[in-house]
Amino acid sequence: MPNQHGDFIWYELLTSDVDAAAEFYGAVVGWRSRSFDGAPHGYRIFSADDSDVAGLMTIPPEAAAAGMRPCWLGYIAVDDVDAASRRIVEAGGTQHVSPTDIPGVGRFAMLADPQGVIFYVMRGATEETSTSFASMKVGHCNWNELATSDQAAALAFYGGQFGWEKGDAMPMGEMGDYQFITHHGETLGAVMTRAANGPPPMWNFYFGVADIDIANKAATDGGATIHYGPAEVPGGSFIIVGSDPQGAMFGLVGPRKP
Questions:
Q1: Spans in the chain with pLDDT lower than 70
Q2: How far is Cα of residue 199 from the mean position of the Cα atoms in its chain?
Q3: Which pTM value belongs to this model?
């Protein structure tokens, strides 16, 4: 079925070196990359074995001048980009890129939530279903995690804009709950309070790998800094949180093979 308002439909790496990033994620996640003809900033497409899952591009000069650093961003489907952008700003968000058409692809806008976390909204040009987020597929995003400075406000904001609901929660001691978020019965990820000495509020995306130890070695050999993991999570999978060689935060999730 077509994607619905509030679904994650695409992921995008903004980086300082697209060639190095393409090589790194190819080795770690197994993605192939190809150029997207006619697109600015050296835009490329990452694909898994079965479909396209993400994009990467050079940080635009004006964004770099404003202080943007390499990062991963997510695209959230909306029924109407212009209306969604207006509602987000009215709810305390910020618009960084006004609604813009990409011929043959769709209409998008770049915004930030009231805590300053950047994300995109988009309406595709076709009703084709995105499988960029697929919680059990290798090579796809398996988990979307928001670390925020105000968990209650963030949950209210995203729930109001996209219809997300609270699911189960896991206590995290002084940091409060790790609150799962669901959408039309599917668990998208979770919202947590950012660590006091950690990165600023941000989305972090966990991409599925076939073997966490092989992926960990490939990431380390490729110049990544591993901040956490491999660590087991409920369900028996293992996760890693790291920074790629250009400094973008990323997550990996997968099994530990015997």
A1: 1, 38, 40
A2: 15
A3: 0.96
